[in-house]
Amino acid sequence: MTATGTFGVDLSPQEDVVTPAGRMLIDKTYQGDLVGKGLGQMISKRTDNGVAVYFAIEEFEGTLQGKSGTFTLLHNGKMSPEVQSLDITILEGSASGELTGLTGAMRIIQQDGKHSYELDFEL
Prior knowledge:
AOC barrel-like; eight-stranded antiparallel barrel
């Protein structure tokens, strides 16, 4: 099955003077087939030659097509001047409530300064 919709995101940079990577807090609000909040943390690294990577753990709480519960999204993004990739998957075994057993992967689409998602899932 597929769920679609939009989301707003606030990223709050955190002070980490000890490590060479950046850290941000994630606060998302989902609309559409997903309705709820996504909260998490991101670790990122960008080099002078344009190569970057980020990893994040996001905890979703709300509803998916009317069924309520929680689940964890794992983000893994890479970028170079030539190539970009982003994998976002549901952590198997992380879902609760009416979403218990949920598996799948999410795509993020950025267009005209707005974010939308497509979540391919099985429940």
